[in-house]
Every structure is written in structure tokens, then in C-alpha cells.
Amino acid sequence: MSNAWDDRAEAYRNSVTHATDHDLDLVVELCAPHDGMSALDVATGGGHVARRLREAGAKVVTVDASRGMEPDVVAPAERLPFDDGSFDVVVTRIAPHHFTDIRAAVAELARVSRDRVVVEDTLYTSEDVERAEKLRDPTHIRSYTEEEWRTMLADAALEVQRVEFFEKTHDLDAWLARTGCTGVEADRVRELLAAVTSDDGTTWHDRKIILQAKKKV
């Protein structure tokens, strides 16, 4: 996985859908950044959350399994090399569907936080969309429903305080190109996404779920 993501790093740093939009604004808002607050950005990718939190005065450490993403610390979400309660807030955005052991990762997010955890990820839509996602990008593991997210967070001793949903529209060609998906595989992905694709075939949409949870005392 790391080698694949190393090769994609620049594309994700420059990805408009990752670098902008109101879902990013909301994730930052739910982190409640302020001067001196400590934050851990897990699976930082292009570093967009970290940048915004730093601009708001937070002290941010970034972690990612890919060296190419140039994180402060190279490590998978399932094994975070930090002490319990090391950060005021732990955040991960549009990454958990890549985590190989989602429950272990959520447990780690909770363990290293001393106050809150903020998560954004793609919401489960259908098995056709799941097949399209994995064909386009073999590092895709699975997207989860709201109920699954609530259960996983509760099992990690986190109390969900707020849940929001956000629909994102993706340029289909750019989305396929970002992972180098071409030819027959790209054609099949388009077929599988037909139900969520625009009439002219240029864009497709998915829904993101954004959750803010607090550690139970």
C-alpha cells in the first residue's frame, strides 16, 4: 500500500476535492482549533486538515503510512506510536475506508486522544459502488454505514456528539486518473457507478459522513 500511495502523493496534494470544500471547513470546525491545542492528523494524505488546523493556531503532528505523503511520523493508523492521551484532538479525513483493520484503527484514535475524535469518511452506498471503488483503487477496503460508525466509536469508549452528512461531486476522469485507472477497468468502473453518475457522464457523487465524538470519562 505504501508504494502505491507514495506514487500518488502529489496527485492527492493537488486534488481539489481533498484540498477544498465545505466538508473540510466542517471537519476543522469540529476539531475546535485554538492557540496551543495539540492535534494529531491521522492518514494526513495531502496534509489539508493539518494545514488548516495550524493556521488556526493548533500544534499539529501528522502521521501517514506513506512516506511520499511527507508526514511527521510514518505509521499505520492501526499502530500509532504515541502514548495514551497524547493529543487534545485526533482527526482523520477521507481515509478510514483504506484502513486494513478499522476497529483497531478506531481504538487507536481513541487511545491517543484525551478529549475528542473527529472522523470524515465516505458513507456506504451500495455493493456496486464498493466494487467500483476497489476496482479503481485496490487499497480501498470498505466504506461503512452510519450505524457501523456509531457502533465502532461506542466500542472504543467514544460518545458521538454530532453527525453531519455532505454530498461531494467528483470529476470522473480526474478521479480515475488519480489512481491510474484506465482502459477496460475504467469502463467497468463507469458501469458500476451508473446510478450515481450525472446524465452527461462527467461527474459522480457520493456522501461523506462526519462524526465528532468525545472520550467517555
Count of discrete alpha- or pi-helical segments spanning 4 or more residues: 9
DSSP strand (E) fraction? 25-35%
Give me the secondary-structure category.
Answer: alpha/beta
Strand order within the widest beta sheet: 3-2-1-4-5-7-6
**Low-confidence blocks of residues:** none
Quote the average pLDDT.
Answer: 92
Categorize the overall geometry.
Answer: globular
The CATH level-2 architecture is identified as: 3-Layer(aba) Sandwich
Biggest sheet architecture: 7 strands, mixed
Helix content: 25-40%
Provide the CATH topology. Answer: Rossmann fold
Q: What does this entry look like structurally?
A:
The chain is of the alpha/beta class and 217 residues long. It has one domain: Rossmann fold. The chain has nine helices and seven strands; from the N terminus they run αααβαβββαβααβααβ. It has helices spanning 2-13, 16-19, 22-31, 48-55, 102-112, 127-136, 146-155, 172-178, 183-192; strands spanning 38-42, 59-64, 73-74, 87-93, 113-122, 158-171, 203-215. A seven-stranded mixed β-sheet has the order 3-2-1-4-5-7-6. Strand 1 (38-42), helix 4 (48-55) and strand 2 form a beta-alpha-beta unit. Helix 3 crosses helix 4 (48-55). The protein is globular and about 50 Å long. The N and C termini lie far apart (36 Å).
